[in-house]
């Protein structure tokens, strides 16, 4: 590749047809060149063209019949280039002039910033010595004539199609209206079939839905609760890792299997921010909790639950007094950590009037029966100052008042009373393991537990 100093070819994008430029002094292509380039000055009507953002495409068919097509952005990276004034250099890469001889066709096309072709220059040249001629304008005329022919063909074809559509329009419209009428009638017939009160699809659907609900209810009634776990005491239940949500657990006692504090527990997931109270809700080692289910009691254990704790008092009043029972905690003198160390400082807390039932073996003795959970491990003692009997167990106290009593006669029965749990009924003392325990669904919120056999 050789370039004469300060040589630049002027190309006018609006140049007249059939002009031939002798560019032998501007460009000399040689086989094997790796970067051929042609410095040009681009004008339009002899005025410089701002080539920023433009592209140029070149290609054609060489002497061996191989097609070439290359596209590059117009750049001003050579000496003396000024892209804003149309002074640029066109580069032809190493894949262009691979073989010598006469090119069958060669063109350079300039593409504007909007992507549209602005001008195409056809060149006719041989890769020989120093002569290189460009015939400017021929390609432009050929492209315009070809475009006009294609445009005419498209226009004629469009007119033909439009005529056919116009002719068929009325026929299609009539056929469509007929089809629409038939469709509406078919739809009306189908809706009548669906809504038929006897054999319609809607009636059949309701019948099937009712049948499904009956089957579901039957399946619910037939379900077994196959995970009723048995434990001797609460600590054993707490440490059993296999317990899962919705399981049912039965403890025979609280600390021991025969202490009379058995219960039924529903296993569930611990609620967010929940703190188990240790009495009605027990924390398990596996992260679950066991919630006391007081509704799960059998008929033979219900009375034992409500009146399973018995206090016997020998009062010697020769009467049948009506008892009044109070329960309270942390009375003065019973605080574990010293006087005034209860939750409220001085004075009793958690005071309750306890429901009770009385039986009278004779006119001088009364048996007061209380719910089992109030059991205290102590015998009743009469206190003359209060005229009542007291049962103490740590910080817990039960007071039994029999009204106005003769204190001297009451003291004669001291050391004859007792406080004990009733035994022998239900799983609250020594339960029997169930062999056929079933949960019967009453509704979506309620179940009934049946212990058969």
Quick description:
Residues 307-402 form the Baseplate upper protein immunoglobulin like domain. The chain has five helices and 28 strands.
Layout: helices, strands, pairs:
Layout: E1 9-12, E2 19-22, E3 35-44, E4 47-48, E5 55-61, E6 67-73, E7 87-93, E8 101-102, E9 105-111, E10 117-123, E11 126-127, E12 133-136, H1 138-194, H2 201-222, E13 228-231, H3 234-238, E14 248-251, E15 263-269, E16 281-283, E17 288-292, H4 299-307, E18 309-314, E19 324-329, E20 349-354, E21 357-362, E22 365-370, E23 381-383, E24 388-393, E25 396-401, H5 407-411, E26 418-421, E27 437-443, E28 446-451
Parallel strand pairs: 1-3, 13-14
Antiparallel strand pairs: 2-12, 3-4, 3-7, 5-6, 5-9, 8-11, 9-10, 14-15, 15-17, 16-17, 18-22, 18-26, 19-20, 19-25, 21-22, 23-24, 24-25, 27-28
Written overview of the protein:
By secondary structure, this protein is α+β, with helices and mostly antiparallel strands. Among the domains are: 9-136, Immunoglobulin-like; 228-296, no CATH class; 309-421, Immunoglobulin-like, CATH 2.60.40. It contains five helices and 28 strands. The protein has helices at residues 138-194, 201-222, 234-238, 299-307, 407-411; strands at 9-12, 19-22, 35-44, 47-48, 55-61, 67-73, 87-93, 101-102, 105-111, 117-123, 126-127, 133-136, 228-231, 248-251, 263-269, 281-283, 288-292, 309-314, 324-329, 349-354, 357-362, 365-370, 381-383, 388-393, 396-401, 418-421, 437-443, 446-451. A five-stranded mixed sheet has the order 13-14-15-17-16. A five-stranded antiparallel sheet has the order 20-19-25-24-23. It is elongated and about 145 Å long.
């Amino acid at each position: 590749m050789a370039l004469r100093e300060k040589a630049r070819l002027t190309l006018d994008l609006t140049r007249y047809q059939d002009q031939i430029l002798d560019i032998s002094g501007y460009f000399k292509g040689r086989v094997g060149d790796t970067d051929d380039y042609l410095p040009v000055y681009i004008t339009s009507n002899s005025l410089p063209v701002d080539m920023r953002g433009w592209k140029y495409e070149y290609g054609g068919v060489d002497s061996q019949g191989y097609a070439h097509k290359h596209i590059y952005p117009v750049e001003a990276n050579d000496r003396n280039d000024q892209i804003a004034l149309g002074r640029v250099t066109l580069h032809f890469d190493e894949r262009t002039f691979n073989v010598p001889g006469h090119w069958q066709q060669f063109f350079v096309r300039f593409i504007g910033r909007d992507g549209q072709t602005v001008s195409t220059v056809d060149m006719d040249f041989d890769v020989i010595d120093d002569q290189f001629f460009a015939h400017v304008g021929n390609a432009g005329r050929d492209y315009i004539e070809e475009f006009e022919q294609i445009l005419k063909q498209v226009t004629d074809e469009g007119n033909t199609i439009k005529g056919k559509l116009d002719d068929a329009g009325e026929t299609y419209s009539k056929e469509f209206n007929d089809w629409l009428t038939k469709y509406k009638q078919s739809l009306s017939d189908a809706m009548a079939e669906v809504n038929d009160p006897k054999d319609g699809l809607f009636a059949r659907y309701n019948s099937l839905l009712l049948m499904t609900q009956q089957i579901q209810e039957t399946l619910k009634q037939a379900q077994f609760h196959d995970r009723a776990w048995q434990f001797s005491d609460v600590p054993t239940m707490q440490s059993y890792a296999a317990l899962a949500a919705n399981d049912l657990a039965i403890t025979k006692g609280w600390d021991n299997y025969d202490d009379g504090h058995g219960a039924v527990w529903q296993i569930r997931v611990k609620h967010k921010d929940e703190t188990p109270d240790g009495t009605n809700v027990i924390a398990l080692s596996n992260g679950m909790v066991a919630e006391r289910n007081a509704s799960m009691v059998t008929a033979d254990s219900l009375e034992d639950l409500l009146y399973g704790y018995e206090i016997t008092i020998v009062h010697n009043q020769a009467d049948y007094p009506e008892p009044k029972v109070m329960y309270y905690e942390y009375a003065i003198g019973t605080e574990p950590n010293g006087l005034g160390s209860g939750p409220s400082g001085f004075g009793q807390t958690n005071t309750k009037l306890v429901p009770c039932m009385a039986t009278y073996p004779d006119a001088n003795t009364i048996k007061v029966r209380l719910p089992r959970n109030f059991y205290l491990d102590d015998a009743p003692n009469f206190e003359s100052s209060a005229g009542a009997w007291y049962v103490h167990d740590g910080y817990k106290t039960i007071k039994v008042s029999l009204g106005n009593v003769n204190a001297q006669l009451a003291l004669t029965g001291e050391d004859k009373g007792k406080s004990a749990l009733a035994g022998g009924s239900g799983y609250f003392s020594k339960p029997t393991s169930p062999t056929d325990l079933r949960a019967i669904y009453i509704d979506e919120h309620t179940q009934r537990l049946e212990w058969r056999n």
